[in-house]
Amino acid sequence: MPDQHAVLSASSANRWLNCPPSALLNAIVPDKATSYAQEGSEAHLMCEVEIKKALGILVDDPHGTLQYYDKEMQECADDYRDYVMAQLAKAKETCQDSLICIEQKLDYSRWVPQGFGTGDCLIVSDGTMHVIDFKYGVGVKVPAQMNPQMLCYGLGALDTFGDLYTIDTVVLTIYQPRRAHIDTFTISKDALLKWAEEVLAPVAKLAAIGKGEFSVGDWCTFCKIKGSCHARAKVNMSLQNCEWMEAAALDPESVAKMLAEVDGLISWAEDFKKEALDMAIGGTAIPHYKLVEGRANRTYADSDEVATVVEKAGYDPYEKKIKTVTAMQKMLGKNEFNELLKDLIVKPQGKPTLVPESDPRPALNAMPEDDFKDEEE
Prior knowledge:
Elements: H1 4-7, H2 13-18, H3 22-27, H4 35-54, H5 71-94, E1 99-107, E2 116-124, E3 127-134, H6 148-161, E4 167-176, E5 181-188, H7 189-208, H8 230-237, H9 252-281, H10 303-312, H11 325-332, H12 334-341, H13 373-376
Parallel strand pairs: 3-4
Antiparallel strand pairs: 1-2, 2-3, 4-5
Helix pairs in contact: 4-5, 6-7, 8-9, 11-12
């Protein structure tokens, strides 16, 4: 049987809580190392180092050995350190014996078979325990409210420190600096334990043995078998039988129904095609299909040699182009970027986008298509 920690990790709890059978299926698929994961690990290390230094703990500065270290990473680590130290100071106002733990091992196996993980930062006091999780990703803002990963960490922290401190409130914070996102959710100890007994433990028991119902939703995003999942394929392929598609033309109500499904359909189709390609590359024959060489653009065999030859011929082989706003901020760091360029950055009006009513952005009035032609040209 696969390692239970990999099966029921806190980081994947949102997926296996919603789709229990996916746990065992994901566990047998090897993890793929990515640059994003490595960058995130290095940012977490810098955060750990900066907080320990602030606490007076001797620690080696590792930034010279990090592949992705830059000014942005350092500023994010500094800002995170300042936030954590401010929370510690606040806790000590009411409890001088407040405890701070960095990269704390947490065991929540009382509710989840062999469930354990690592909390980025815990601040434990009489009355309140604060669990802080650092996220370096920029793709999606991670919410704190009823976040299963954070709830599992909260349970592990309660199990570790609940006998040392009188805790009645658990505060869960997602700190995501590259999205300017700090989100905090507060839950009572009793409510957290009730969720653990009534929701977490029963589903974890099913997930650990591959039982339960498959379910399709946004938790599929990081699922390793999302391209080959039969349940996801069934849901998306069933859209071709939608009764509103029988009309000669779609009316607004039909459009609304289809819009609610189409993003998931496109995402699934891309994942499915990638899965099929991977199968073929791996040697599996797909009936009626074959592997061919795709189109490729011309490129230089040796850019330096090309530059030398062209310069000798009396030409300038280089073009000078200013960095993008994102690349410039990454080079300068957030603070220096704001200091130097704050008044030189503008944000043009974006093209209209159709989104659900739940989107927080204000609605636009209908406007002529010509208003946006310049952007397209």
